[in-house]
Amino acid sequence: MKDLRRYLVLKYVQYLVLSSSNAISTFLGLLGSLYTIIILQSAKVSSKSTAVLISSLAKADILVSVSVVSEMVVWTFDVSISSTAFTSALLQNLLTANAHISCLLLSCVAFEAYLITFFPTESRYLRTVKNATLTSRVIWILVTAECTLFQTDDLLKASSTSAPNRSPCVLLFHFSSTAAALLKSLSYFLGILLRIVNVYIYYKIFFSMSNR
């Protein structure tokens, strides 16, 4: 459990403290996720809702691995890509999806810690493996839909730039562009809100434990 707590601290620093990930935090995050996945396979770790959320958090770094490995392959072997703009946008959207999934899951872990600290008995029916699994799946589905919209918008922008006069989907382009812009703004403000909420939760937990 101590290792899992250290992993959570690492992830909080990476996604909710730092304004943007850097090479060092990304590398440490990938190593931590790999180690965490191995730990969670152990029979010594009980199957609880927190473990389910942490497992989903660690698996989210698969998206980072795909992006990093793809860039390394292109850079090392000088691979030529037929659609550079599409691939670049896809890799960036994978990183965005990873960040959003991680922030939401970390917030779920923080909320569960709040319930355990202040409402241990009353919240027991909420803190189940089934609910944690369902929450993780919903988060993945929503962020996947978000990533798909961003990728569609990037693809339509590239298509309209290369052939602006023969684009048959002008309405679709404007709709996806507007929806993507609104979603990016919503994600930005939601990210700020999650940071504030997480700080407040751990502030309350810290002082509650100190008073005890």
Automatic annotation (TrEMBL):
Pfam families: 7tm_1. The keyword rRNA-binding does not apply. It comes from the Eukaryota. Keywords: G-protein coupled receptor, Glycoprotein, Membrane, Receptor, Transducer, Transmembrane, Transmembrane helix. This is G-protein coupled receptors family 1 profile domain-containing protein. PANTHER family: G-PROTEIN COUPLED RECEPTOR (PTHR24232), GENE 5127-RELATED (PTHR24232:SF83). One of its GO terms (biological process) is phospholipase C-activating G protein-coupled receptor signaling pathway. The chain crosses the membrane at residues 12-40, 97-119, 171-203. Residues 32-212 form the G-protein coupled receptors family 1 profile domain. One of its GO terms (molecular function) is G protein-coupled receptor activity. The lineage of its organism: Eukaryota, Metazoa, Chordata, Craniata, Vertebrata. It is found in: Membrane.
